[in-house]
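hey so u asked for the seq, here:
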Amino acid sequence: MDLLIKGGKVVLPGGQIEANLGIKGGKIAGIFAPGNNPEAKQVKDVTGCFVFPGLIDPHSHYGVYNSLEKDFVDDSQFAALGGFTTVLN
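ran it, structure tokens below
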């Protein structure tokens, strides 16, 4: 694994679970039970924190301050950099 995120409360569609996440190539490669720590190049201990695989921004301002076309290009990239996987206008 490239990264192991351990000790967090992983938020899933059905609720939250305590688990470790293995990341490889920028994608979630495995969800592991607490205590199951596969070898990784980097380890982040996030004990007590919530871990979201992607965030939703339900309130954006595309096309308000700039053209709609420009905002869709620029603001979508900014959202992705911040961990947002869905943006609603």
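Helices lie at 68-81. Residues 68-81 form the longest helix (14 residues).
lmk if thats what u needed
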